[in-house]
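Side project, low priority. Logging it here so it doesn't get lost.
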Amino acid sequence: MDLYIIRHGESQGNVGQNVDDPQLTELGQKQAELLALRLRNIKFDAILSSPLTRAVQTATPLAELRSTPITVMDDIYEVGTYGDETLSKVQERAKNAVAKIREKYGDKENVIAFAHGTFNNHFIKAACGITSGEDFNFCQENTGVTIVRFILDNGKPRVKLELANCGKHLENL
């Protein structure tokens, strides 16, 4: 299984507009469209999204291009969205999200998940089996693509970080 973890496009919140559930900016929408073009030929079995507007809006161009529905996954919302969370609660939520994805989609399916910068740091760590606290972070730029590959190596399960925070699709912006 390949798990693509993608941060949403630029949102109103990224440019200093203080709203509860910010939408994508014009630039964020363009980033989402370029991302969809980049991923259009990738084999995947599901598109997952955080319930927050900016993540759903980022997933929408790909879903429309591929005629694939977006499945909202309530567990992958941004840290602090619904009040304060302890580090251990966020880590547990990320670990549970990875477990649910692996259980539902199995080892032979590929999944694209659209979520948020701070949460994705914990999501990637959970997928890779990294249990460190806040002393190590994965950078997540807007529409940055990270691929975590779950493989069997001589019959032994392993995790491979295939790509981290790639924004190649944004080169001509």
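Brief comment: The radius of gyration is 15 Å.
Revisit when time allows.
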